């Protein structure tokens, strides 16, 4: 039982080790070999104290000191003078401001009010006029404005200094400036928890507070705080006594730091122990994960889906680690019981998610740990299929372009509509105008294309169900129209294939019948005459006659079997040709010459037309002789007595040697003359003539082996065979 838990314990140890590494990488530098007074929190507190101790405690400036540093540039004078426009513009503005009010006082006979308003107007005009006449007059006004800003700053600094003294009362210091003036606060000789001495590197601080300096920029005129800021160096000591620390809020941070430090050290030490046990248990872990991935239900996951699941689980694992880390980092917000419950819960979630994550990682590694496995799973992934589909989109550039345009239009239309709703104004009118001009026609065209596609799909379904009597309608020159045309070609091909299949089945039946008939006829005779020979009462003359018939029928059966084997070997290509440069003219003359006597006895008038010069071709002379011989024998069997037979050889215009045999058939020939090439097919349907019915089939096989061409033409009773082979 315990053995079954080893892989799980190994994963738990691995998860805890990774959590330890995570926390150490994140904040290890803050706690290892550090005290609270080296922590970031205390350094931030100290930086704030040192930044404000100068302007709020050591070298607080007076208003007179700052005012003495005020300067006014000529640019400031010009800017103040022309702030409301030129002299004429400002005078006209003043007059227009008082004109209606003075007229109203005159209309009401309020002479005192009228006089008062006129005096105010004239005084302002006089002041404006003097601004443009006297730079010193303007400078004094600017100095007065800046002095008022400094007074506000000094008041703010005094209030801020009180808060500073109250908030940082746990700091003690004894500092001496460059003039030898000593500044003390508290007692630096008391037992302390923090001490810093500035001797070789003096404390440098300014006289302008960062917090209150923004007041100097809050008016029409402003004072550059850097011009007023006076930097001073101090040497001496800054301390925090134990007594002051215990009574100050700083100790809360100190205690929190120590608690965090102890907690993280425990986590890091335990994670190292967990790493040791995880390493020890790795041998039991891998076979268990291997058995897991062999399960059929899990093996169905494609690799990209598994990667997504691993990624999501990894993200949840990272967030769980961060949540557990924060539970420790900020545990000062809770009491200990609440902290332990919170941390235990988050640690449990972390372990569960971590175990799930590492199981999937190890499983994933087992599936792709070789290049072959990775390649196999990659090709089986959904992304690979999507990529192939996207690639297939560009097999037809027209469809790809139309698809991209339609998708872009959809995105543009949707985005524009949302933007028009958000923006408002005249923008929606423009959007709807564009949609009306472009979008609606595009939508109509798209829907029309989809309707045509549905029609093609319907006709394709009919075609798949065997209804081949109707063409798919071809509309226009679009890719869909081209597809419809291809479907029509496919329909014709299917119909032709079905016709050829029916023809093949018919010819196969005839072949079996003919083979059976042609082989059974001589075999029956052999059996019959063999039985007759067994009779002891037959005469010697009868015996000789029976043996002669047996010999004849045996030769007939031998010829049939040899021809059948030969045509089968030729049809399968399992025969070797011995090509050479042969004079086809001489070969035809010799082959035909051997049958001149037979032709004469069959009352056939031979007419040969041969060229005067030799015609050469690369052929197997023996096989080509057999070809010519079969065609002449075919004439002997099926030509009508008393007719002419024409044998012609010539060189065609395109350089072929063309051999032609023409005769008048004694039997009626089917319109489908190509069937005569089939094995055991005869023009004599009653099969009364001698022969195997393989003559033309053998001839066709010889022609095919040589890469030549052979055709049959029938015109009534006129039978014509044409053989063409490239001449050299």
TrEMBL record:
Its membrane topology: Multi-pass membrane protein
UniProt-listed CDD domains: HisKA
Residues forming coiled coils: 63-123
Keywords: ATP-binding, Cell membrane, Coiled coil, Kinase, Membrane, Nucleotide-binding, Phosphoprotein, Transferase, Transmembrane, Transmembrane helix, Two-component regulatory system
Cellular compartment(s): Cell membrane
Entries under PROSITE patterns matching the protein: HIS_KIN
Catalytic activity: ATP + protein L-histidine = ADP + protein N-phospho-L-histidine
InterPro entries membership: HATPase_C_sf, HATPase_dom, His_kinase_dom, HisK_dim/P_dom, HisK_dim/P_sf, HssS/ArlS-like, Sig_transdc_His_kin-like_C
Name assigned to this protein: histidine kinase
Source species: Lysinibacillus mangiferihumi
């Amino acid at each position: 039982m315990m053995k079954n838990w080893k892989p799980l314990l190994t994963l738990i140890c691995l998860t805890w080790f990774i959590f330890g590494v995570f926390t150490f990488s994140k904040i290890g530098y803050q706690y290892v070999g550090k005290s609270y007074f080296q922590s970031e929190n205390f350094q931030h507190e100290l930086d704030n104290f040192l930044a404000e101790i100068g302007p709020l405690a050591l070298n607080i400036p007076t208003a007179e000191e700052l005012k003495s540093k005020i300067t006014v540039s000529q640019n400031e004078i010009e800017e103040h003078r022309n702030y409301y426009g030129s002299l004429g513009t400002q005078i006209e503005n003043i007059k227009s401001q008082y004109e209606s009010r003075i007229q109203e006082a005159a209309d009401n006979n309020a002479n005192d009010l009228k006089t008062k308003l006129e005096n105010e107007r004239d005084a302002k005009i006089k002041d404006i006029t003097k601004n443009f006449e006297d730079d010193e007059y303007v400078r004094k006004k600017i100095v007065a404005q800046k002095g008022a800003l400094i007074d506000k700053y000094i008041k703010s600094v005094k209030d801020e200094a009180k808060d500073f003294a109250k908030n940082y009362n746990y700091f003690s210091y004894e500092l001496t400036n460059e003039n030898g003036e000593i500044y003390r606060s508290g007692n630096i000789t008391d037992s302390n928890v923090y001490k810093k001495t500035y001797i070789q590197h003096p404390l440098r601080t300014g006289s302008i507070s960062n917090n209150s300096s923004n007041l100097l920029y809050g008016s029409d005129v402003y004072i550059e705080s850097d011009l007023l800021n006076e930097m001073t160096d101090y040497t001496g000591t800054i301390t925090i006594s134990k007594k002051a620390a215990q009574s100050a809020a700083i100790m809360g941070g100190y205690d929190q730091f120590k608690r965090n430090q102890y907690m993280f050290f425990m986590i890091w030490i335990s994670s190292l122990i967990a790493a040791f046990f995880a390493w020890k248990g790795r041998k039991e872990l891998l076979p268990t994960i291997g058995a897991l991935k062999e399960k059929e239900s899990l093996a169905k996951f494609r690799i990209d889906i598994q990667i997504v699941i691993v990624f999501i689980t990894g993200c949840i694992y990272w967030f769980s680690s961060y949540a557990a880390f924060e539970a420790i980092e900020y545990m000062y917000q809770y009491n200990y019981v609440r902290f332990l419950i919170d941390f235990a819960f988050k640690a449990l979630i972390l372990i569960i998610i971590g175990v799930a994550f590492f199981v999937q990682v190890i499983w994933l590694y087992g599936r792709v740990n070789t290049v072959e496995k990775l390649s196999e799973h990659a090709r089986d992934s959904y992304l690979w299929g999507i990529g192939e589909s996207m690639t297939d989109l560009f097999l037809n550039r027209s469809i790809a372009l139309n698809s991209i345009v339609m998708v872009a239009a959809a995105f543009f239309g949707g985005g524009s509509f949302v933007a028009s709703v958000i923006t408002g104004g005249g923008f929606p009118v423009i959007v709807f105008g564009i949609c009306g001009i472009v979008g609606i026609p595009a939508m109509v065209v798209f829907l029309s294309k989809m309707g045509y596609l549905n029609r093609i799909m319907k006709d394709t379904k009919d075609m798949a169900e065997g209804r081949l009597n109707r063409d798919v309608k071809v509309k226009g020159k679009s890719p869909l129209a081209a597809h419809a045309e291809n479907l029509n070609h496919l329909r014709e091909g299917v119909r032709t294939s079905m016709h050829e299949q029916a023809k093949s089945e018919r010819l196969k039946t005839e072949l079996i019948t003919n083979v059976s008939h042609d082989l059974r006829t001589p075999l029956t005779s052999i059996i019959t005459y063999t039985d007759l020979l067994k009779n002891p009462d037959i005469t010697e003359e009868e015996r000789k006659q029976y043996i002669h018939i047996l010999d004849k029928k045996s030769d007939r059966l031998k010829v049939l079997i040899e021809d059948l084997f030969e045509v089968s070997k030729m049809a399968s290509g399992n025969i070797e040709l011995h090509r050479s440069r042969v004079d086809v003219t001489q070969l035809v003359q010799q082959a035909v010459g051997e049958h001149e006597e037979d032709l004469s006895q069959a009352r056939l008038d031979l007419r040969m037309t041969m060229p005067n010069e030799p015609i050469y071709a690369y052929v197997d002379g023996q096989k080509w002789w057999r070809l010519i011989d079969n065609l002449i024998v075919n004439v002997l069997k099926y030509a009508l007595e008393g007719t002419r037979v024409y044998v012609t050889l010539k060189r065609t215009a395109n350089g072929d040697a063309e051999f032609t045999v023409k005769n008048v058939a004694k039997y009626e020939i089917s319109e489908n003359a190509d069937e005569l090439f089939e094995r055991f097919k005869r023009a004599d349907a009653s099969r009364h003539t001698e022969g195997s019915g393989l003559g033309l089939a053998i001839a066709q096989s010889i022609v095919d082996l040589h890469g030549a061409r052979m055709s049959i033409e029938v015109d009534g009773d006129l039978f014509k065979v044409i053989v063409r082979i490239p001449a050299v």
